[in-house]
């Protein structure tokens, strides 16, 4: 039997950004900024930039939908109050709803626990031509589960292994999963909205003080703050282990929401532009048919 050479992942151009997580495992949360650079233009200019990008995104999404060859998966992960919901809403507000799908993933159901940890999100992957958005994702299995490993007791895992080995196998599964999706036309962008602990505290206080925001706050959110450093280490390890050219991570400063939203929109737009998308072109016979139909309509038939 002939030896078959390894099938390499197609080269995927990465959208360059100061917030791109490299694939050399050198990322450290301790030096990852939560605030915009001093050279940023301010909140008003960020909002103007976002509005311009939304117009571009609307045009690109229409072509993506019409071409029906690629899909796009946007993954958002963050600590509570970092702004996932509002960023998704702000960036995607100009998109045709028919071409966009948003899924949020909470505590797994009994049915989901009877499958592997990638199953429930796999059922929600975007079809060709659509943009799929995961508000939290399969990464919860190496984030919240890592911080609270007692959750594993209810997962009915078939093999016993050390926690360190378990995380390594899950990272490997995630890399393989995302590589498979990329090979088959799913363009993946992953955003860690990097909010500071102080800014989270201010936003929690705002939720308590504003009656219209009370529903957003729960005592559980406050308890998770006690595990802040554990979460940061879990994010650092996960991002280092799974940021690859075919599925890059971006650590976006999240203390300034307008700046954060403009950064996210810019990366999405530049990625779609890199695909060189075009509207489908009819073959000559179909074009001749359109010419005939146009003439028929012109005669009032």
Backbone structural class = alpha/beta
CATH level-two architecture = 3-Layer(aba) Sandwich
Helical percent range? 40-55%
Rg is 22 Å
Describe this structure in words.
By secondary structure, the chain is of the alpha/beta class. It has one domain: Rossmann fold. The protein is built from 11 helices and 5 strands; from the N terminus they run H-E-H-E-H-H-E-H-H-E-H-H-H-E-H-H. Helix 1 runs parallel beside helix 10 and helix 2 crosses helix 10. The longest helix has 25 residues. The model has no long low-confidence stretch (mean pLDDT 93).
Based on the model shown, name its key terms.
five-stranded parallel beta sheet, alpha/beta, 5 strands, globular
Task: Sum this structure up briefly.
The chain has 301 residues and is of the alpha/beta class. The chain has helices at residues 43-67, 84-91, 110-113, 119-122, 144-147, 163-183, 197-209, 219-224, 228-242, 257-274, 284-298, and strands at residues 71-78, 100-104, 131-135, 186-194, 249-253. It has a single domain, classed as Rossmann fold, CATH 3.40.50.300.
């Amino acid at each position: 039997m002939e030896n078959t050479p390894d099938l390499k992942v197609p080269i995927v151009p990465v959208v360059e950004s100061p917030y791109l997580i490299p694939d050399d495992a050198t990322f450290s949360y301790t030096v990852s900024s939560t605030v915009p650079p001093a050279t940023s233009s301010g909140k008003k200019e960020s909002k103007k930039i976002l509005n311009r990008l939304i117009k571009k995104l609307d045009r690109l999404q229409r072509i993506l939908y019409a071409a029906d060859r690629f899909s796009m998966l946007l993954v958002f992960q963050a600590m509570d109050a970092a702004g996932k919901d509002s960023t998704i809403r702000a960036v995607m507000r100009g998109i045709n709803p028919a071409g966009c799908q948003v899924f949020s993933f909470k505590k797994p159901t009994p049915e989901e626990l009877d499958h592997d940890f990638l199953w429930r999100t796999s059922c929600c992957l975007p079809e060709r031509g659509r943009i799929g958005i995961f508000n939290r994702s399969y990464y919860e299995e190496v984030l919240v589960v890592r911080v609270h490993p007692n959750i594993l007791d209810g997962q009915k895992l078939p093999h016993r292994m050390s926690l360190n080995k378990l995380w390594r196998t899950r990272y490997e599964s995630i890399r393989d999963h995302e590589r498979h999706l990329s090979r088959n036309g799913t363009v993946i962008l992953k955003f860690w909205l990097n909010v500071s602990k102080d800014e989270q505290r201010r936003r929690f206080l705002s939720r308590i003080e504003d009656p219209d925001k009370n529903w957003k706050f729960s005592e559980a959110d406050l308890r998770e703050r006690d595990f802040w450093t554990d979460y940061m280490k879990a994010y650092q390890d996960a991002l280092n282990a799974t940021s690859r050219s075919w599925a890059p991570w971006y650590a976006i400063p999240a203390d300034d929401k307008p700046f954060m939203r403009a950064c996210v929109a810019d990366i999405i737009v530049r990625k779609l532009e890199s695909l060189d998308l075009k509207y489908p072109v009819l073959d000559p016979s179909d074009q001749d048919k359109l010419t005939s139909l146009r003439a028929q309509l012109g005669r009032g038939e």
